[in-house]
C-alpha cells in the first residue's frame, strides 16, 4: 500500500492556475487529458473489446490486506463535513471513525459484491478491493448479507429507504448508482486470470456461491438514475492516488456500462 499521498497532476495544475489567474476551463481540460491518458488503450472501443481493454488497465493494482482496509476506509469515506467521521453507505449516517467493529451500532466493512459470490472471502485482491468495500452499519450489513440487488421488499427499520426480501436487497436511492458501478467494476477487474473466479453480472437473484451477481438489468437502471456525483468521483481519485493506483472506469466514463452490458 502506498503510505505517502501523491498529489494528482490535475490538482497541481489547478493550484498553479489559481496563482497565475488562468481560466477555470483550462483546469478541467487538464483533468480530462489526464483521464484520457489513463484510458488511452480503451478509447474508441466497445463491447467485449472495451471490457478486455479495461481489464488490462485496472488490473495489477496495489493490494491491501484486510486489516489495512479499516484504515483506508477512514480516508476514502471520510465525512467532508466532519473529518473525525465516516459516512455509512446504506444509512448515510455520519459516524466516528473509531466506532468500527462488530458490535451493534458499530460500522464494519461491507463487500458490495458479496464475497461468497465467487468464494473469495477476505483474501487480498477481490476481498480487499476498496472499489467495492464500504463502511456500513453492522446490523444493516447483516440484513443485506450476500443477497443480490433488485427492487422491492420490506423497508428496513434501521435504514429507511433500503428494502429487502428473501433473496434481494435494494439500497436507498442516493447510492443506487454507486452500488451498480461497484458491481460492474468487479466484473471488469476480475476475469479469472489471477487465481480468483471470473466474476460476472447476470439477470438473476439467489446466485449464492456462484461467481455471479444480479440483477444486471436493474443495476443498469440504477446506474442511469443515479449518475456519479462529486463525492463518488472524489472517492475514485483517493483510491487511485493514495491506495490502489487504479480507478473505477464506470465513474469516469458512465457511458461504458451500456456499451459493455447494455
UniProtKB/TrEMBL annotation:
Q: Which UniProt keywords apply?
A: Endonuclease, Hydrolase, Nuclease
Pfam families to which the protein is assigned, alphabetical: Endonuclease_1
Q: Name one GO molecular function term.
A: hydrolase activity
Q: Classify the source by domain of life.
A: Bacteria
The protein in question is named Endonuclease I
Its lineage opens with: Bacteria, Bacillati, Actinomycetota, Actinomycetes, Pseudonocardiales
Amino acid at each position: 500500500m502506498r503510505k505517502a499521498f501523491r498529489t494528482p497532476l490535475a490538482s497541481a495544475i489547478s493550484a498553479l492556475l489559481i496563482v497565475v489567474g488562468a481560466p477555470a476551463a483550462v483546469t478541467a481540460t487538464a483533468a480530462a487529458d489526464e483521464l484520457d491518458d489513463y484510458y488511452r488503450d480503451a478509447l474508441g472501443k466497445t463491447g467485449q473489446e472495451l471490457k478486455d481493454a479495461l481489464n488490462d488497465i485496472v488490473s495489477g493494482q496495489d493490494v491491501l490486506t484486510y486489516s489495512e482496509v479499516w484504515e483506508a476506509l477512514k480516508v476514502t469515506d471520510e465525512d467532508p463535513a466532519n473529518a473525525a467521521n465516516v459516512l455509512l453507505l446504506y444509512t448515510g449516517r455520519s459516524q466516528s471513525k473509531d466506532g468500527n467493529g462488530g458490535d451493534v451500532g458499530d460500522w464494519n466493512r461491507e463487500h458490495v459484491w458479496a464475497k461468497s459470490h465467487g468464494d473469495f472471502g477476505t483474501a487480498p485482491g477481490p476481498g480487499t478491493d476498496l472499489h467495492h468495500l464500504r463502511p456500513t452499519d453492522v446490523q444493516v450489513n447483516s440484513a443485506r448479507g450476500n443477497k443480490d440487488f433488485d427492487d422491492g421488499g420490506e423497508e428496513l427499520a434501521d435504514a429507511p429507504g433500503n428494502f429487502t426480501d428473501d433473496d434481494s436487497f435494494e439500497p436507498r436511492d442516493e447510492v443506487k448508482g454507486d452500488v451498480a458501478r461497484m458491481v460492474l467494476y468487479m466484473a471488469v477487474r476480475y476475469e479469472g486470470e489471477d487465481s480468483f473466479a471470473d466474476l460476472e453480472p447476470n439477470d438473476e437473484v439467489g446466485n449464492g456461491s456462484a461467481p455471479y451477481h444480479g440483477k444486471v438489468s436493474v443495476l443498469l437502471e440504477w446506474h442511469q438514475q443515479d449518475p456519479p456525483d462529486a463525492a463518488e468521483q472524489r472517492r475514485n481519485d483517493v483510491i487511485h492516488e493514495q491506495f490502489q493506483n487504479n480507478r473505477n472506469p464506470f465513474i469516469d466514463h458512465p457511458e461504458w456500462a451500456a456499451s459493455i452490458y447494455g
